[in-house]
Amino acid sequence: MSDSVTTTFSDLNAGKSKLINPTLVLNCGSSSIKYALISEDESTRITGLAENLGLDTARIKHTTLNGEKLEITIPGGRHELALQKILALLEQYDFIAVGHRGVHGGREYSEAVRVDEHVLSEVKRLKVLAPLHNPANALGIEAVQAIYPEIPQVVVFDTAFHQTMPAVAYRYPLPKSLYEEHKIRRYGFHGTSHAYVSERASEITSAKGSHGWLTAHLGNGCSATAVYDGESLDTSMGLTPLEGLMMGTRCGDIDPSLHIHLKRQLGMSLEEIDKMLNSESGLLGISGLSNDLRTIEQAANEGHKDAQLAIEMFCYRVGKYLASLSCALPEFTGIVFTGGIGENSATTRASILTVMRHFGIQFDEDKNASLVGGAEGSLHTEDSSIELWVIPTDEECQIAKETRQTLGLD
Ligand code: AMP
User: Fold this and answer.
1) Residue 248 Cα, ligand 1 centroid: separation in angstroms?
2) Are residues 127 and 230 in the same domain?
3) What pLDDT digit, counting tens, does each position of 201-223 carry?
């Protein structure tokens, strides 16, 4: 492990010639920072990840243009230091813009926005709705401002894509004042991913006219969205990313009276309940093993009953949700699977489609099995009622694209 920021001669040369007018994409989370430097034509990129932030084990894993791997320690694990080191690593490539993944843009932002003082203060203010993510986003913006005050920055909010949802989908059946005075409504998340894969599906399908997709982003976090003609009409996540599908450690939909029940019966505090629902539930809670589907699939194959139930519940809940979201679409062109699970687990895709057995969906088992490890393609047969696609998501590319568009660079 090295503490120094070194660049090889070949990397420098390769970088200068291939990375034309690159955009830096920063995805600052509570304990990690993902970054990508993407060339204007989107064909070349440098990527990296700062992980374990907040801990002494914090480090940056950086992949150069040549595919060479570097590891850089971050003594003390502070976000600010990690960002400084990332910027130092990329300094030589003369990036022309920075695009941030913003998690919560509230009602304010229905599209990507150029950062100014007002935008930065809104990102900070909206931490009430995303306490883990928005403060980290603000740190990322400020770190760039401190070192490169002249480089334009853009925030692409996870919530922005879903601002096209109609009131019938975004309102909760709660007293009106909660919405009007306190902005309590459904916002939706994973917007850049749903936008990217639905746009890509519309590019590669041969279906004519307007397209209605159900996009299933199944990773550690999971959400599904109904996208018609490029617009989100409904989605599974809500005020926070806890609503909707069962996830790695998040419960998804549960009875809202659970909080009061647990408080009364078990004396749990609201903080304890919140932690349990966000960090100890989902695949982890049911399997009792892990939030990682690979571990659970292996245990299930070896006969572990709780692992088998975790997978069955996961697939049942995704299928049930997709079936209900289909009601939002004027036309149902197809389903798009993405995210670590959606892109890699053929058995999970097959089980989800089997749950939706009344829809006339037909898929080719061999095609399904072949679509893993970053492959893009379809698995429906000719007589299927709808199309079925696996499209690897590329949130970094989408953020870079929206950043360039917002700044008029495209
Ligand atoms: P993401 O958050 O999109 O990185 O997705 C993480 C999830 O994808 C974890 O639950 C992983 O277990 C799952 N995953 C990644 N690769 C595979 C695979 N080959 N088979 C099954 N699940 C996978």
Assistant:
1) 10
2) no
3) 999 999 999 999 999 999 999 99
